C-alpha cells in the first residue's frame, strides 16, 4: 500500500498538464522514483542526450589538476557525505530521432546491440561517480580532490524479458547507492516506451567503482561518504556494505561438500557407462566443456581508449558479450537471449598496442539456460620476455597475462533442452561449479 506522502505526490503529478508521468518501483537497490518529463522534449534536449553525458565527463577529467592539493590536504580535507539523490542523473539514447544512432545500435537480428548498451552503462557509471564527488551536483565545478575513477568490477546486470526496440528512445538513469573509503557502488537502470507509450523496465546494473590518484594509479583517493535519509536507503547502503565485506573472503569460492559429492557422482556415472576401467563416456545429450571453446584475438587501437589513455572497459564488455552470445548461439543451434551478467572483473588495465585475446566456454547448462564464461588476456610483443616470467614455460603457451573475467547467463529461445556440458579436467570442474552457482542464483533472482 502506498504511503500518504507518496499518494499525495502522485495526485500532484496527475494534476499536471501536458506531462507524461511514470511511477516505477525498482527493488530494494533503488528507492521509489517518480519520473516526470515530456518524452519528446527530453529526447531532443541536447543537455540530456547520452553523448552530452560522455563529453561532460571527459571535460571534467581534463580540468583535473593533480598538483592542486598537497599530500597532507589529500589526507585531511573534509569530504562531506552525500545523499543518494545528490548523484542521480538520467539521459537518453535518442534512437527515435537520430538515424546515425539507430545504425550504430542496430544488431544483425534487427534489435538493439546489447554490447553498445554495455558501453553506455560503463560511461554512465563513471559519470555518476564523478557527480557524487563534485561540488554543487555539477561537473562544471572542479573535483573536491584530484582523482581518477575507474570501473573495478560489475557485480551484476539483469535483463528483463522485454525486446528493446531499435527506433524508440532508451532512457538510462543511475545513482551512487554505496560509498566506502575509496570505492562506490553505482546502480543503473534502462527504460523504453512500448507501442502503447507504457514505460518498460529493461535492465538493472550494479557497478563497483574505485577512486585512484591520477599521478599514481596504485594509490587510493578518498571519496565522499553516503548518508541515508530513509530506512530503505539505509537498508540499501548496509546491504551493499555487507557485500563489500564478503567480496574479499576467498572461503566463499571454495567448493562445498555438496558440490564435491555432485562431481563425484557425475564421474561415477560417466565411468560406469564404459566397459574399460576409468574411461569416461558421454551420452548423446552431453558435451565436454573444452569442446565448447570459442576465441577471438585482436590488436588494441587508439580508437578504443578511454579518457585515461587505457582501453575502455565498456569496449571490453562489448567484445566479451558478443563472443559469449555467438558461442551460445552455436551451442544451442538457435537464437538465444541474454538474461544476466555476473562477476565481471577488471583485474589489470589493457594498453593500446596490446594483443587482446578473448576465450569463451560454456560452463554449465540447465534445461534451456546456459552459463558462458569469457576470459580476457593480453600479450605484448615488446614485453614477451617479461610476460614469459609470469607463465610456466613448460606449458608451451604464448606468454599472456589475464586481465578480465566475464560471466553471462543465456536462455535458448528455440531449443528448450540444450546439451548438458561436462567438465573433463579439474580446471574445468572449478569453472563448472562456479557456473552452476551463478546460473542457479540467476534463476532464483529473475526467473523463479
Structural class: alpha+beta
Distance between the first and last residues' Cα:
24 Å
Tell me the fraction of residues in β-strands, as a range.
25-35%
Tally of distinct domains: 2
Q: Name the CATH architecture of the largest domain.
A: Roll
Task: Look at the structure and name the CATH superfamily of the largest domain.
Answer: Hotdog Thioesterase
Q: Quick one: CATH class of the largest domain?
A: Alpha Beta
Explained architecture:
With 448 residues, the chain is an alpha+beta fold. It is 32% helix and 29% strand. The chain is built from eleven helices and 17 strands. The strands form four sheets. Strands 4, 5, 6, 7, 8, 9, 12, 13, 14, 15 and 16 form an eleven-stranded antiparallel sheet that branches. The longest helix has 22 residues, at 426-447. The radius of gyration is 23 Å and the shape is globular. The model is unreliable at 1-41 (pLDDT under 50).
Summarize the structure.
With 448 residues, the chain is an alpha+beta fold. It is built from 11 helices and 17 strands. Helix content is 32%, strand content 29%.
Provide the descriptors you would attach to this structure in a database record:
29% strand, 2 domains, 11 helices, Thiol Ester Dehydrase, Chain A, alpha+beta, membrane, disordered N terminus, 448 residues, hydrolase, 11-stranded antiparallel sheet, HotDog_dom_sf, globular, two-stranded antiparallel sheet
Amino acid at each position: 500500500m502506498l504511503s500518504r506522502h507518496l499518494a499525495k505526490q502522485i495526485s500532484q503529478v496527475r494534476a499536471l498538464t501536458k506531462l507524461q508521468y511514470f511511477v516505477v518501483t525498482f527493488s530494494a537497490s533503488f528507492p521509489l522514483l517518480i519520473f516526470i518529463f515530456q518524452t519528446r522534449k527530453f529526447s531532443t534536449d541536447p543537455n540530456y542526450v547520452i553523448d552530452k553525458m560522455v563529453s561532460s565527463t571527459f571535460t571534467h577529467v581534463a580540468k583535473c589538476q593533480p598538483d592542486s592539493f598537497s599530500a597532507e590536504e589529500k589526507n585531511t580535507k573534509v569530504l562531506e557525505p552525500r545523499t543518494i539523490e545528490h548523484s542521480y542523473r538520467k539521459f537518453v539514447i535518442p534512437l527515435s530521432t537520430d538515424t546515425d544512432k539507430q545504425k550504430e545500435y542496430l544488431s544483425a537480428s534487427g534489435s538493439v546491440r546489447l554490447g553498445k548498451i554495455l558501453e553506455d552503462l560503463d560511461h554512465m557509471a563513471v559519470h555518476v561517480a564523478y557527480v557524487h564527488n563534485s561540488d554543487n551536483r555539477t561537473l562544471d565545478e572542479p573535483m573536491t580532490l584530484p582523482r581518477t575513477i575507474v570501473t573495478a568490477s560489475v557485480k551484476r546486470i539483469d535483463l528483463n524479458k522485454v525486446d528493446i526496440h531499435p527506433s524508440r528512445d532508451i532512457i538510462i538513469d543511475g545513482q551512487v547507492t554505496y560509498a566506502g573509503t575509496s570505492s562506490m557502488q553505482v546502480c543503473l537502470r534502462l527504460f523504453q516506451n512500448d507501442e502503447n507509450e507504457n514505460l518498460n523496465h529493461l535492465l538493472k546494473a550494479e557497478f563497483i567503482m574505485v577512486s585512484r590518484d591520477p599521478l599514481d594509479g596504485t594509490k587510493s583517493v578518498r571519496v565522499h561518504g553516503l548518508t541515508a535519509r530513509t530506512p530503505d536507503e539505509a537498508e540499501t547502503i548496509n546491504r551493499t556494505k555487507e557485500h563489500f565485506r564478503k567480496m574479499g573472503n576467498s572461503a566463499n569460492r571454495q567448493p562445498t561438500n555438496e558440490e564435491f559429492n555432485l562431481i563425484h557422482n557425475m564421474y561415477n556415472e560417466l565411468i560406469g557407462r564404459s566397459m574399460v576401467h576409468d574411461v569416461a563416456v558421454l551420452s548423446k545429450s552431453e558435451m565436454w566443456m573444452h569442446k565448447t571453446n570459442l576465441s577471438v584475438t585482436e590488436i588494441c587501437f587508439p580508437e578504443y581508449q578511454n579518457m585515461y589513455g587505457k582501453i575502455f572497459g565498456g569496449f571490453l564488455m562489448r567484445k566479451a558479450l558478443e563472443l559469449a552470445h555467438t558461442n551460445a548461439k552455436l551451442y544451442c543451434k538457435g537464437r538465444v537471449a541474454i538474461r544476466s551478467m555476473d562477476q565481471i572483473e577488471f583485474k589489470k588495465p589493457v594498453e593500446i598496442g596490446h594483443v587482446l585475446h578473448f576465450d569463451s566456454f560454456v560452463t554449465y547448462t540447465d534445461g534451456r539456460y546456459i552459463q558462458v564464461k569469457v576470459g580476457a588476456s593480453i600479450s605484448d610483443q615488446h614485453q614477451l620476455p617479461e610476460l614469459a616470467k609470469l607463465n610456466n614455460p613448460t606449458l608451451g603457451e604464448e606468454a599472456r597475462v589475464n586481465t578480465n573475467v566475464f560471466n553471462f547467463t543465456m536462455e535458448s529461445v528455440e531449443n528448450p533442452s540444450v546439451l548438458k556440458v561436462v567438465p573433463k579436467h579439474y580446471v574445468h570442474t572449478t569453472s563448472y561449479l562456479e557456473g552452476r552457482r551463478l546460473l542457479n542464483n540467476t534463476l532464483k533472482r529473475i526467473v523463479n
